[in-house]
Design a protein that fits this description.
By secondary structure, the protein is mainly alpha-helical. It has 17 helices and no strands. The protein has three domains: 1-211, no CATH class; 228-273 and 349-387, no CATH class; 286-340. It has helices at residues 2-8, 15-23, 34-55, 58-61, 67-100, 109-124, 126-146, 157-164, 166-201, 220-226, 229-248, 257-273, 280-309, 324-340, 349-360, 367-370, 373-385. Helix 5 (67-100) runs antiparallel to helix 10 (220-226). The chain is elongated. 32% of the residues are buried.
Amino acid sequence: MEQQANFEEFSLFGGPLHRLGARLRLVSGTRSALALGLALGLLTWSILLALAIIEGVAPKLFSLSVIAAHVRLLVVIPLFFLSESLLDTRLREFVGLIARSGVVPENALPALRSEIARTGRWRDSWLPEIMCLLATVLLTVFATRFHLSGKTSAADPVRVIDEFRLAGAWYWFVCLPLFRFLMFRWLWRVALWWCFLWRVARLRLHLVATHPDGAGGLGYLEVAQTYFAPLVLAVSAVVSASFAEEISSGISVFEAIYPALAITLVADLALVLVPPCFFALKLRACREKGMSDYGAFAARYVNDFEKKWLNATNVPAEPLLGTADLQSLADLSNSVAVVRNMRSVPVSTRLSITVMIAALLPMAPLFLFKYPIAELVQRLIAKLAGL
């Protein structure tokens, strides 16, 4: 029981920021960190709004040219922490499940426990978050030289500070670095999860070809990966808001969103679908072994079935109707079909569709620049009325 509890305590989310949130009672004992995300986003946004009101530039703050600032603080930062809270439970359940179900056999449990301990040490270490902070500072200092964010007023510190002064300085030197720090922190958590799955995939796993989930016993990994959807939503929301800034400011044209949309979609799909692919070789070997073993077993059974019911010189005394032999033959056929249809990776079309919806949904408002709803409705009414 004590060893099993170690598996159930697996978590990717912790570290200095979470410990600070726990001291402030913004992170609950159930690892729910949404309150911390809301506090960080609302606090920084409220100060931004207060400074804009003091300067008398509050109306400018709510223009489309700076919409990404609101999205980053009020939408994306809370989504970061919501995704943490949702994922933490699912990832922990996946690790506990592969230990309980025997996917990781008993002789490999010490290795799994070692990987969990290694992940925990990196999760709680100060070094990764210090590196994220350093990357944030470097990006803030050198971003304008690399022109990473376009030329909208919210992306250019000179324009921001010149147009909004106090509010602009607060956004550029506090709000945007906070967002970037949390973004780098999430990238680190994703890398930590990828490394953990990569090492688990290298263990001697006991995968069962006839498992009903069609993935040898790894089917719950798809459920866990589904909970990356809030993170995918957050990434797409930032991209969409940035394009809204550029289009409304005349810096970019609507048609420019198509390549960016495609790149964002590919990146989001890779974020969710690549980790399960680490198990592809193990699943392929499991399927091939299953086809060989069940093929040989089925051959013996159907040969005996033919001898008994089709080629026998003496008809069996038991009635053919209702005999268990026919049901066993059908069950065997179903088992072989399960092995034959076993998935190459523990993902399905449903997961891909979920990711695509989360990635494309924030992009939908951008089409209002090209197809205004009021104009479309007016045209539709005119067509219906024959005008």
